[in-house]
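Deadline looming. Please check this record:
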Amino acid sequence: MSDAAMTRPIAVGAIDTRAVGWWAMWFLVFTEASLFAYLLFSYYYFASQAQTIGDFPPGGPPSITLAAPDTVILLLSSVAVSWGQFNIKHSHNRRLLFGLGLGAILGIIFLVVQYFEWSEKTFNISSHAYGSLYFTITGFHMAHVFVGVLILIWLFIWSWRGYFNRVRYAHIHIGALYWHFVDVVWLFIFFTFYITPRLT
């Protein structure tokens, strides 16, 4: 690549698609999405064998008392981060800070509520196939949310130090991509564990 191409400024409002991190995050998202797809496939496989293995899930559909509001919390966090993304394109750094900070706080609240959801279960990971799948899949997702919260906090610190502006903000989009992915995955998990048992 020529020196002129390397120093060419990026158009305002555009994502630097040459950034290695941007493509690396897409590959990571694809890989992690495949892992979640395999795990959810395992759930549906066992659910299809209910006549052989007994009630699935044991005791009937799980309560959505905590899971439903927790889903709303995670979706609101994605909205907050998206709002921050939009505002950095217009040099509104304070709004970016608010969006990233609110997204991280809502992510932490999601983890706390999920912990209480776990503590209310009458089974554990070794009780039966359903318990193994439930704690493995939701635990795997919680680990991703935890990493996402750390990313948002790190981006918040960088933003607070003035690292980003209306031209330099590729890192925001890279981190936000991961966070939105985590939110979308939870929708599939919520639908699988809390909605599909009610549909059958």
